[in-house]
Amino acid sequence: MREQTSLSSEAVEQFIKAVGSANVVIDEVARKLLSTDLSFQPGEIADIVVCPADSKELSTCVTIAASANMPVVARGGGMSYTQGYQPELPGSLLVDLRRMDRVIEINTEDMYVTVQSGCTWKKLYEALLEHDVRTPYFGPLSGMYATVGGALSQNSLFLGSGLYNTTAESALGLTIILADGAILQTGSAAHKNGQPFYRHFGPDMTGIFTADTGAFGIKSEATLRLIEAPEVTLFMSFGFDSLEAMLHTQTILARKRICAECYGFDPYYNKSFENQGFTFGEGLAVLKDVATTEGGIKGL
Ligand SMILES: Cc1cc2nc3c(=O)[nH]c(=O)nc-3n(C[C@H](O)[C@H](O)[C@H](O)COP(=O)(O)OP(=O)(O)OC[C@H]3O[C@@H](n4cnc5c(N)ncnc54)[C@H](O)[C@@H]3O)c2cc1C
Question: For FRET with 216, which of 42, 173, 182, 185 sits at 20 to 30 Å CA-CA?
Fold first, then answer.
């Protein structure tokens, strides 16, 4: 029989009461899988994993963990490789946010979207496209699985970054579960009867909780800015004789603000294609398939 969690049955019962037994993971193999990121480095295995459905359930779980003195780690789509969501200490609670994947409000009047943090970029992109809008930054290349909360926490960049920079710059407000389980709202939604379309409501509290890899709190909801979706998307690719020439061209493109995404393979990446047994040309062909599917992310 597989080894189960070392948590007391009383503590397990509390988490089950908070999120339901189907959303509590105590099986050791499953906990190990969820505690290991794409670096595949060995680390601590969470004592228990919970999958809350909303801010309230998440807050309850963090409150239970805080009163039991358990370290809490957030996990989004699990697409990172920097040991960001691998527990560092024994006896940790891992919060798997993928069940919190609802698009809560699409407001094309005030041009914002509010989404649960476990929503993938792909799901969000597709929901917004029905309204001919998108977020300025609209996901990393891993956006089929990577979540809004994960990208905000690592301040990812890629789709849309050529014009609109990193994930954090598309954020207008966040709902944060603090270490004691308290719920904090940032941005203008924090105002009594306020709407979430304005990032500054006093000092920029939203900024504090972006690019924090979840160290300052767990994002349960995010409000992101909207822009009109482009009517046409076109792609071009170029080869360069040197890294310097490529970087010089990318710098010009960035200054002129004419490219939503601008991605280059340096000699190190070219080499790693070859090391994996296929030529750079073959690697580019795969990327071309991804890119030429309208909207890029759809190609994933
Ligand atoms: C094939 C591939 C392509 C990639 N492409 C890109 C790319 O184009 N651009 C790029 O920047 N990165 C890229 N990455 C890296 C990574 O996928 C991104 O950084 C992605 O945004 C991580 O999101 P996630 O939901 O998977 O987060 P996770 O990997 O689950 O977590 C990342 C970090 O955020 C924390 N976290 C997650 N959710 C929350 C939350 N709700 N509240 C608080 N903290 C949280 C975790 O604790 C962890 O520290 C790529 C990775 C792969 C494997």
Answer: 42
Which of the listed residues 125, 154, 176, 216 should we mutate to test ligand 1's pocket, taking the one with most ligand atoms within 8 A of CB? 154
Distance 134 CA to ligand 1 centre (A): 20
Computed over every residue of the chain, the mean pLDDT equals 91
Choose the final residue of a domain: 98, 123, 150.
Answer: 98
**Contact 105/113 with Cβ under 8 angstroms?**
yes
Q: Which residues line ligand 1 (CB under 6 A)?
A: 38, 73-80, 84-85, 97, 117, 140-142, 146-147, 149-151, 153-154, 156-158, 213-214, 218-219
CATH of residue 131's domain is 3.30.465.10
Question: For residue range 167-224, what is the model confidence (pLDDT) as tens digits?
Answer: 999 999 999 999 999 999 999 999 988 899 999 989 999 999 999 999 999 999 999 9
Question: Has residue 259 been placed in a domain?
Answer: yes
Confidence of residue 287 (pLDDT cuts 50, 70, 90): low
User: Which residue carries 């599917």 as its tokens?
Assistant: 293
Give the pLDDT confidence score for residue 264 in this predicted structure: 85
Which residues are bridge partners to 174 per DSSP?
A: 222
113 plus 170 within the same structural domain: yes
Let me know if residue 235 belongs to a domain.
no
Cβ atoms < 10 Å from Cβ of 8: 10
> CA–CA separation, 145 vs 118, rounded Å?
10
Q: Measured from the CA of 118, which atom of ligand 1 is nearest?
A: 41
